[in-house]
Amino acid sequence: MAAASATPTPTAPAMGPLGAPPGRDTALDVWRGFALVTIFINHVSGNVLEQFTHKNFGFSDAADLFVMFAGYAAASAYFSKYLGDEKLSTSLKVLSRSVKLYTTHLALVVLGGAVFATMAISKGDLGLFSVMALEPLMLDPPGALVDAVTLRYQPGFLNILPLYCVLIGTLPLLMALAARSMGAAVAASGVLWLAAGLTGANFPSYPIPGGWFFNPLAWQFLFVLGFALGARRNRLGAATTYHRAWWWAALAYLVLGLAAAKLTGFPENGWLAPLPDFLTVPEKQFLSAPRLLHVLALCYVVVHSPLQAWARNLPRLHPLSMMGRHSLPVFCTGLVVSITGVAFKQTGFDGALFDIAYVSAGVGTQVLVAAMMSVTEKRRSSKPPTASLPAAV
Questions:
Q1: Where is the secretion signal located (predicted)?
Q2: Which of 35, 85, 265, 385 has a 20 to 30 A CA-CA distance from 150?
Q3: Is 262 exposed, middle or buried (0-12, 13-18, 19+ CB in 10 A)?
Q4: SS in 3 state form for 49-71?
Q5: Cβ-Cβ contacts under 8 Å for 372 (sequence gap 6 or more)
Q6: Quick check: pTM over 0.85?
């Protein structure tokens, strides 16, 4: 997403993830697919392609995009129905989605642990458990399982689905507040984000200290901002309005992030005392202000650039579009494949050739899963509706 080289198009309406006419947002699917590919590459840690992902060129990374797009998509999928006469049914559907995310996460914990256990046993190297922070499962399996079920214990690579589960689980509350006043919903979310960042409040974690890697009290703000933009798009046909000064200011901030990443290095704690580090240092766990501003600037610049026309005009069956449309199964597939790749790299499989081949095969596997889901989706939509059974049956 080479936002820094984009040229603004002030006469065109904002389209794509942060602005599109009502209907299926193809550009949103494309950018979600982009985020999923990037997350996969980053999860196969240490591979040669990782250095080219956009986390190396600014303060934010694909996780920020993933969460923001999740909020945007949630508004598109649920909020219009909620505002109608389907409040209860929509809320129940959202809660069912959260339960699905929760059970999926637990299945991935077991599967991820099994992958590394297989490698550790075959190589006789129990130290492999430390790569994914799986020591609790080895030292105290019953306790670790209890903590995993309560989401207090989150092995490495498996910490974003718990966040997503909480965000979707609290979506009915967000919709109830937003239905009364979107401004109040965003303001309350912002206050909670600021309070978490300044006080260090977080959900508890055990036995690994420090709280959740993605602090829900902080990351919910990015989700809510995405939700508000998605709701605005549903209402007005465009989520953002082009302002020349804002666009150039956003671009300047991206250039600042690029300079920090490649020239000066990110600022260290205390560099702008007495301001708190939360407001001045890019940090992931609490979604610090520099990081939040960076992902917002990145989205704004891209939305009002020719990249949006490119994404919007891609065919529905483009690999990125299919991946974004079926993000959960694609994401879970990527997690399993990336965890396996990390295990391989820890046991002697290394080098640029292996990295490129494995990442390519992993992305290809995710595209295949997305294509299979798209075929299934098409078959379901082409089936004629079945007659309802008699009420007494």
A1: none
A2: 35
A3: exposed
A4: HHHHCHHHHCCCCHHHHHHHHHH
A5: none
A6: yes
SS3 182: helix
Q: How far is CA 176 from the centre of its chain?
A: 23
Q: Please classify residue 45 by burial: count the beta carbons closer than 10 Å to its beta carbon, then call 0-12 exposed, 13-18 middle and 19+ buried.
A: middle
Q: With DSSP H G I counted as helix, E B as strand and the rest as coil, what are the percentages for the chain, rounded to 5? A: 70, 0, 30
d(CA 155, CA 205): 11
What's the confidence (pLDDT) of residue 392?
A: 39
Which residues neighbour 368 within 8 Å (Cβ) at sequence distance 6 or greater? none
Cα separations (Å) of 79 from 72, 89, 98, 232, 316?
10, 12, 16, 11, 24
DSSP string, 235-267: HHS-S----HHHHHHHHHHHHHHHHIIIII-PP
Q: How far is CA 160 from CA 16, 216, 283, in A?
A: 24, 10, 16
Does residue 91 contact residue 83 with C-beta atoms inside 8 Å? no
Total Cβ atoms within 10 A of residue 311:
28
- Distance between start and end Cα atoms, the chain: 54
Kindly give the parts of the chain with pLDDT less than 70: 1-23, 383-393
Tokens matching residue 158: 């498996």
DSSP 111-126: HHHHHHHHHHHHHT-G
Classify residue 235 by burial, with Cβ atoms within 10 Å: 0-12, 13-18, 19+.
middle
Distance of CA 18 to CAs 164, 262, 301, 331, Å?
Answer: 20, 28, 11, 22
Q: Measured between alpha carbons, how far is 277 from 118 in angstroms, rounded to an integer? A: 42
Residue with tokens 């009420």: 391
C-alpha of 180 from chain center: 27
Cis peptide, bond prior to residue 207, ω within 30 of zero: yes
